[in-house]
Amino acid sequence: METQVGIVGAGPAGLLLAHLLQRAGVDCVVLEARTRDYVEQRVRAGVLEQGTVDVLTETGAAGRLRREGMVHHGIELRFGGAGHRIDFSRLAGGRAITVYGQQEVVKDLIAARLEAGGTIHFEAEAIELGDLEGGRPRISYRAGGGEQQLRCAVVAGCDGSHGVCRDAIQAGALTRYERDYPFAWLGILARARPSSEELIYAHHDRGFALHSMRTPDVTRNYLQVAPDEDLERWPDERIWQELQARMATDDGFELAEGEIFDKGITPMRSFVAEPMRFGRLFLAGDAAHIVPPTGAKGLNLAVADVRVLARALQAFFADGDERGLDGYSDRCLRRVWRVQHFSWWMTSMLHRMDADDPFEAKLQRSQLEYVCRSHAAATTLAENYVGLELEDV
Length: 393
Hints:
The protein is an alpha+beta fold. The chain has two domains: 5-72 and 96-177 and 269-348, FAD/NAD(P)-binding domain (3-Layer(bba) Sandwich); 181-267 and 353-386, D-Amino Acid Oxidase, Chain A, domain 2 (2-Layer Sandwich), CATH 3.30.9. It contains eleven helices and 20 strands. It has helices at residues 12-23, 36-41, 50-58, 63-68, 88-91, 102-115, 236-247, 298-319, 323-350, 358-373, 375-386, and strands spanning 5-8, 28-31, 47-48, 70-72, 74-79, 82-87, 97-99, 119-121, 125-130, 138-143, 146-151, 154-157, 175-191, 200-202, 209-215, 218-225, 259-274, 277-278, 281-283, 289-290. A hairpin with a 2-residue loop joins strand 10 and strand 11 (146-151). The longest helix has 28 residues, at 323-350. It is globular and about 65 Å long. It starts with a strand and ends in a 7-residue tail after the last helix.
């Protein structure tokens, strides 16, 4: 099998890239190791930046998003028993975020790809990449009980942090930057109406908590826990008690409770691979970088990557212009490091870093008060949270 662009991975990065390329008349094939049902059901992020919503809208993939997504014009920072609203509309030129589950974005992009006659091979596990520095790379993959090959001009590695693409880069050609955080998130999905119109980020002596939502009837809540925490030690009753304690305010706020139908623990880490290109292989999304979820940036950063890559590939196949491909890594990494810093800053400000260090706690409280009091500091948070334009990074 042959194509112009071989895309490994049918997550948001791979699917959006395929959608953009197809609209530009560039032939591509998507290989996905999992089943369609699996990729459409796995729960991930749920906050879309303004730019992410814009590109889905411009390309005709936002019909359901526009109907079902919940537009938010601010967030609340909660500490010291009180809430403080960060007003995106006022601070970020009217830009907003939209709450819409990542799995819903994936469903919409799969539907758009198949409706347009595009190719997605599910249960097609990429096992080896070859000839990446030549003019016709190959992707070897398992499907239908045997091994097959896809030949292409360019490979887009969109297969996440545990995929085959990044590991295919020869030793010494890649530099890895990593940071592990001394805590994790315990996340739940519950059948309960949201207790707030906007997301609540709570800083508390017992640890960080976040109140979010997925639909008008389903909430998503998180608790800071130890990185090696045992989920069995967290029955539903204990989870709700801890959430209520960390979300409490002096005016008697109570979090709406309901049936918990999904729970899990997510480690917190940062990772960047440089460069994001090796020969004819281009990394995008989690294959190239991981951010802690505090800033709600993982999905949005993947979208930013493929917007840049799609434009570069369009110029390459239309006119043989390789300038966009040559500049892809540098351009994306400017945004990656801006987002890494913002995510680190939000994480450091809101989480209990060391329960035995009162000095650290005082610094965090001072930072939170400054962000809520200073127009400049609040603007920095708002602009980064709703997402900087590609041209502004």
